[in-house]
Amino acid sequence: MLRNGSDLDFDALSCSLESMAAAIDVRDAGTHRHCDRTRRIAHALGQRLGLDARELEQLDLAAHFHDIGKIGIPDRVLHYPGRLSEEDREVMRAHPELGERIFLASRHPEAAAVARIIRHHHEAMDGSGYPDGLQGDAIPLAARILRVADSYDAIVSRRSYKDSFGHEEAMRLLREEVGGKIDPEVFRHFEDLARDPGLDAG
Questions:
Q1: Cβ–Cβ contacts within 10 Å for residue 23, how many?
Q2: Tell me, which fold does domain 7-194 have in CATH?
Q3: How does DSSP classify residue 164?
């Protein structure tokens, strides 16, 4: 782990971040487990795509805290049991920007890079994502990796508002998004990873 300043300051910072993650899990049950599974998948995928140690650390942190912005989403939207209205979907779409702001405020040594990944983890290759409508290689590679890992775990996980899907169905659904929402090269590596019996999504 990269450190600036005293170990005591860094430990206090880590505790503060984990406290925020725990607060999200209290408000939205299962978020912590989802983020941890997403982190493990993203890390393995990042290794396959050749990220170096520092880039992997940034990806790990972004994956672990990618939903931290949900702490700023109203309960009526966060806990809605069905399909959100367009207005409420716009409210929910604010969570990557909120997450960016929260992580930037953490003063973590890698805050800027991690916050950038968090901000862009819902961007799409065809420019239809949010919050900035970035397209193709303009989206940070780590964010493209996180998009696949996050999407896969979200599909295979059961939540209060949705049933879970099996692995094959999840892969089929993701395959339909290749070239649109999902980077084809990242997904090709994810398919290779998914053939590994060690893939742990839950």
A1: 15
A2: Hypothetical protein af1432 (1.10.3210)
A3: -
